Amino acid sequence: MTQETTKAKIPLQGETPVNESANMFFWFFEARHRPQEAPVVLYLNGGPGISSVYRVFDGSGPCLIDWKGTITPNPHSLNEYANVLYVDQPVGAGFSYGNANFTDSLMAADYLYAFMQHFYFEFPYLRESEFGIWTSDWGVTAGLALAQKILKKNIGLNWSNETVDGELPIKLAMMGMESPKIDPPSQLAHMYMYMIKNPWLRVQWLENGEKELAKYMEKLEPKLFKCGARKKYNCKKELRAYRRALRSLTTPDDLRTEFDLWDLRDARHNSDRSRNIGMKQTPAAKWLNDPNNQAHLGVTGGKLARGPIEFEPWNIDVLKPFSETQEIIRSWRLNLRLVAHARIRMMIVGDLITNPVGLKWLSQNITVGANHTFEAQPLVWDSLSFNSERDSRQLTVGEFKTTQTFTFVNVKGAGHVIAEHKPNTLVKLFWALVRNKTLDTPVIPWRKDKELFQ
């Protein structure tokens, strides 16, 4: 068991059997301050198949790691004000393993719900705490499915520590969605609009972009909605067309370099497998691949005498069945609306491939409707938010719009994995969500925040 450098905070890690054929690996970091009063937040990464544990080291997690493999505590960590639970899901991602064959996010949510029931039985002192879900990329689909399952289950459970049929109520209070793939067909349509006017690189010219958008909306978008809704089952042609459309958006006519959907400022990876190869060269992946570290984390040994494994930051094999069943283009817009109407706190943070134009449209559609205005305002924080000295600088972080309990945020200058380029910004958005604060004034680490819990 490893100890976080912050005084008396001990992270716990290991695997939990969710049924006879599946074990889910987790890494749990208590809140650095007053964990009994802090919420529990489940962190779900995307892909599908990208390890959540990998994000412990991404700049937003508790640990920073350099190219020499030296680990230091991160003062701007998600677990400053929350108990953060990183879970590798679905089974097959990261260190989670078993015989379960996942084909959709509803199935993944069933396993996550079983996992959380195990968690609360092991940590009874956290049962009264608020519960939140923070998702990245495709993790939003499992997150929304889990949120719906919790809300439905809670109808038949007491808001107490007493169990009904062996289950405990889970006090869902918040959900954060970082670069979420909620509604792929409509988000792709808005990506044409974003690429025409993006501030980084002229890839699509106005005339060509509008022509391609009209063509997409007329011929491909309706078919994608049918495939995602399972109204059509043989969708190999539509899935190929969807991938071609995505790639075409970052292929300039007059430039040799093809740009990346995850970050327009980078050259493109030729495939998801090539991206995984790059991820495996990072210090975090090398640390997680070390047999000594795997033994320390409880990955190896145990009752099954499990030997060292090759850690894959992104297990592409997990992605395949999701694509084959059209789950990869399924719309979760209605699910988002249902969870939002439960009045839990929600935050959407946008990037390129899940572009802010499309996410802003979705946020408007979910909250006030298409016929009402939804104007975002600049998100401006002072320099104290990012260093220890206050000065006159005002830093434009992006833009945001809050409507009752729902907040949309567009982070300026961030790629698909926001924590890689703007980790402090992402963490402050997370802190604001878990502490139920407005974004006008950024939340800062505990040692400078004298109003906490007052």
Distinctive features:
globular, 13 strands, disordered C terminus, Rossmann fold
Could you characterize what this model shows?
One of its GO terms (molecular function) is serine-type carboxypeptidase activity. Keywords: Carboxypeptidase, Glycoprotein, Hydrolase, Protease. Belongs to the peptidase S10 family. It holds the Pfam family Peptidase_S10. One of its GO terms (cellular component) is fungal-type vacuole. With 454 residues, the protein is of the alpha/beta class. The protein has 2 domains: 12-183 and 329-448, Rossmann fold (3-Layer(aba) Sandwich); 187-265, no CATH class. Helices cover 34% and strands 17% of the residues. The chain is built from 13 helices and 13 strands. The strands form 2 sheets. Strands 1, 2, 3, 6, 7, 8, 9, 10, 11, 12 and 13 form an 11-stranded mixed β-sheet that branches. Strands 4-5 form a two-stranded antiparallel sheet. Strand 8, helix 2 and strand 9 (172-178) form a beta-alpha-beta unit. Helix 2 (139-155) packs across helix 10, helix 3 runs antiparallel to helix 4 and helix 3 (184-197) packs across helix 11. It is globular, with a radius of gyration of 21 Å. The two termini are 34 Å apart. Residues 5-10 and 448-454 have low confidence and may be disordered.
